[in-house]
Amino acid sequence: MPNDVSYTPEEVAKILKISKFTVYEIIKRGELKAYHIGRKVRVEGADIESYKQKSKAMSRTSATESSSGSPLPFNESYQQEPAEALVICGQDIVLDILTRYLEKQFPHVRFLRRYTGSIDGLMSLYRGLANASAVHLWDSDSDDYNLPYVRRILPGHPTYIINLLFRFEGFYVAKGNPKNIVTWSDLTKPGVRFVNREVGSGARVLLDEQLKLLKIRRHDILGYKDEEMTHLAVASKVARSEADVGLGIEKVAMQVNGLDFIPLKKERYDLVIRQEDLERPHFQAMINILKSASFQNEVAGIGGYDLSLMGQIISEV
Coiled coil where (predicted)? Predict the structure, then answer.
């Protein structure tokens, strides 16, 4: 490897035989020197070689001290190479349960959760900052979930779309529904205060698509710009009477006192991964977990989900 040549994070990952995300992590921790050319990250060959030599030295030190019986203090720099890390984007609690199952099977792999909305998750997948992203993005032109958005946001990146579950999206309203809010057009009633989700979330996309179809103007909805980052935060605001209505999933309404749920649309909640990753052990395990009776029984026990297609590949994009 020539020392006077610079490399991209992708090329560094191939040289060190680790993931691109792990390369970014060790750069962030200052263990591997890097610099920017505009927005592009580059690493000199000499710095890669220096990192390898330091890692080997740490490995020899670790082996020597371990054989002498002396315990080593905890320090990430004692690892020969950083642990492989896989990032899963999405906000549903089912993803937390899935991560727990994966951690049991691969205790030496770091499974990181990123609680982002659907569009931000797909963008992270496109940029190589995530390994899997859960999405629920409805397209009004095709009346389909997720496929149109995957094609647009990950052009030229072959992916698999794997079903996690189906769930209902609808309105959170106060107990008894005192404002009689049952349809999208009811959001424009005088005095009705709405609480929205952030731009890029699946709930926000569903709302905006419905408003487009019904030719409802956004500025006619009181509170359209009042945003929260999670379904739970939206439900809580309605429960505290700080808003009259919000949009979210049925499961959260079951967890918050003082709410009624008005179902509007059954949505498909899918997991998007790169096709090249499917044969990796972690992703094979992910599919097997999703199809396993133990995992499905645990999720079914939570309630509020349809698991009829869980773990099935919906489409190759």
Answer: none
Rounded to the nearest angstrom, the gap between the alpha carbon of residue 181 and the centroid of all alpha carbons in its chain is 31
Contacts 24+ apart (CB under 8 A), 294-302: 295/97, 295/98, 295/101, 298/97, 299/94, 299/97, 299/165, 302/93, 302/94, 302/251
Check for a shared fold between 85-165+275-316 and 168-267. yes
Encode pLDDT of 130-163 as tens digits. Answer: 999 999 999 999 999 999 999 999 999 999 999 9
DSSP 304: S
Q: Cα(143)–Cα(121) distance, rounded to whole angstroms?
A: 21
Give me the count of residues in the chain. Answer: 317
Tokens of 147: 């496929």
Q: Which amino acid appears at position 12 of this protein? A: V
Task: Kindly report the backbone phi and psi dihedral angles of residue 140, in degrees, each rounded to the nearest multiple of 5, phi listed first.
Answer: -70, -30
Contact by Cβ (8 Å): 265, 248: no
Query: How many Cα atoms within 13 Å fall on the side-chain side of residue 43?
Result: 26
Residue 4 pLDDT: 66
3-state secondary structure 259-277: EEEEEEEEEEEEEEEEHHH
Do the bridges between strand 313-316 and strand 194-197 make them parallel or antiparallel, or are there none, so unpaired?
unpaired
Distance in angstroms between the alpha carbons of the first and the last residue of the chain: 36
- What class is the 168-267 domain? alpha beta
Fold of the domain spanning 85-165+275-316: D-Maltodextrin-Binding Protein; domain 2 (3.40.190)
State CA 137 to chain mean position distance: 13
The residue among 137 and 34 whose pLDDT is bigger is 137
* Pair type for strands 85-89 and 110-114: parallel
What residue ranges do the domains of the chain occupy? 6-78, 85-165+275-316, 168-267
